[in-house]
Design brief:
- The complex is a heterodimer of chains A (77) and B (307).
- In chain A, 48% of the residues lie in helices and 0% in strands.
- Chain A has 77 residues and is mostly helical.
- In chain A, helix 1 (2-13) packs across helix 2.
- The longest helix of chain A has 15 residues, at 34-48.
- Chain A is globular.
- Chain B is of the alpha/beta class and 307 residues long.
- Chain B has helices spanning 4-9, 26-34, 48-61, 77-86, 100-108, 120-129, 150-160, 174-182, 192-195, 204-212, 235-245, 250-257, 260-265, 290-305, and strands at residues 15-17, 39-42, 66-71, 91-95, 112-117, 134-137, 143-144, 165-168, 187-190, 218-221, 229-232.
- In chain B, helix 3 packs parallel to helix 4 (77-86), helix 8 (174-182) crosses helix 14 and helix 11 (235-245) packs antiparallel against helix 12.
- The radius of gyration of chain B is 18 Å and the shape is globular.
- The chains are: A mainly alpha (77), B alpha/beta (307).
- Chains A and B meet through helix 2 of A and helix 5 and helix 6 of B.
Chain lengths: 77, 307
């Protein structure tokens, strides 16, 4: 799932050239603002067919947190 | 004019007065509501009890609906939300963030929630969270801004959501209102024009700067901080931009602007104060009552829309 999530991040935020790891923080490392995060959430919902309520956005701080969150939602791959 | 917005809120005209910090207090909000629009009290960073007193004072001046703008980045937002519920306010607009955590309480109390959005994705998520409408605010606005223009943002948001869209940013007369409706909006929010309203408590010096502003006098500071702010250029904005260019840190920049909006609005310091205003300030030419403004704007808009 990591590779796919990274691919979505690169695609959505136009960050082809940035090093992205599990511990990468959206705010601190990628300087992603709330609007970017909304874009990312929409893309993740579409890819994994889940609904991410907007009150959960604050949990999605790092790449690893996104993956954990998706797993909790029952996403396997 | 009837739209889904006037029906939703029980107001005569689909015109909101923006939730401008320091400016949007009870006198202005009550005057706009009394004239048939939606007056909005800006909670900004005020203590919750100050907001309560503003709501009560506004209610003494008008029986018509009044809104409160909740500034979500403010640490005391939960207390302000509580005051809004306790005082029976029926409309809340939200800025600078995601109102999802308050949505349930507001909905349960029958409060209409109208978030300000700066992108299509944000508008869609707000709709799904239960927002009753969204304010699509373009970068032409004064104060805190996003980056997409009203002309581009409004039709895209209108296509993306089913709830009504209110256009904001760059609107100051009937032409702007008519154009917004053409783009798919069912309401508009104006800020800068109301800054110079007779009922507005803004210092005369500040009003004078807005009235005299030209089309090119608008400046954006704070792009490096991620929280850009639009204002009329003056010594303060030039000093800020100089520091920004030199790579000054957030702390230094915040120190410079500490209290600067209050200095401009209340004390009339147009040199070291921050004169927040939208790009449309150049079009704002006369001080009128809110009623004169709203009636003039709507008369022109209706004429253009029915032409």
């Amino acid at each position: 799932m990591f590779e796919k999530v990274v691919e979505i991040i690169r695609e959505q935020l136009n960050m082809q050239d940035v090093d992205i790891r599990m511990e990468t923080s959206f705010e601190k490392d990628l300087e992603v603002d709330s609007l970017d995060l909304f874009e990312l959430v929409m893309a993740l919902e579409e890819e994994y067919d889940v609904e991410i309520p907007s009150e959960d956005l604050e949990k999605l701080t790092t790449v690893g947190a996104v993956i954990d969150y998706l797993k909790e939602k029952g996403v396997e791959e | 004019m009837k739209t889904r917005i006037t029906e939703l809120l029980g107001i005569t005209y689909p015109i909101f007065q923006g939730g401008m910090a320091w400016v949007a207090e009870h006198n202005l909000a009550a005057a706009v509501s009394e004239a048939g629009g939606l007056g909005i009290i800006a909670a900004a960073s005020a203590p919750a009890e100050v907001v309560r007193s503003e709501i009560r004072k506004a209610k003494e001046l008008t029986d018509k609906p009044i809104g409160v703008n909740l500034m979500l980045m403010n640490p005391n937002a939960p207390e302000v939300a509580k005051v809004v519920l306790e005082e029976g306010v029926k409309v809340v607009t939200t800025g600078a963030g995601n109102p999802a955590r308050f949505m349930q309480d507001f909905k349960a109390a029958g409060v209409k929630v109208i978030p300000v959005v700066a992108s299509v994705a944000m508008a869609k998520l707000m709709e799904r969270s239960g927002a009753d409408a969204v304010i699509a605010e373009g970068t032409e606005s004064g104060g805190h801004i996003g980056s997409t223009t009203t002309m581009c943002l409004v039709p895209q948001v209108a296509d993306a959501v089913k709830i009504p869209v209110i256009a904001a940013g760059g609107i100051a007369d009937g032409r702007g209102v008519a154009a917004s409706f053409m783009l798919g909006a069912e309401g508009v929010q104006l800020g800068t024009r109301f800054v110079v309203a007779r009922e507005s408590i803004v210092h005369e010096n500040y009003k004078e700067k807005v009235l005299k502003a030209k089309d090119i006098d608008s400046e954006v500071t704070g792009r490096s901080t991620g929280h850009p702010i639009r204002q009329i250029r003056n010594q303060m904005s030039r000093e800020y931009l100089r520091l920004e260019k030199e790579g000054a840190g957030l702390e230094e920049l915040e120190h410079l602007t500490l209290g600067s909006l209050r200095r401009a609005v209340i004390e009339g310091d147009t040199v070291n104060g921050t004169l927040m205003a939208g790009q449309i300030a150049g079009l704002v030419r006369k001080e009128q009552t809110c009623r004169e403004m709203i009636e003039e704007i709507m008369e022109e808009a209706e004429r253009l829309l029915h032409r």
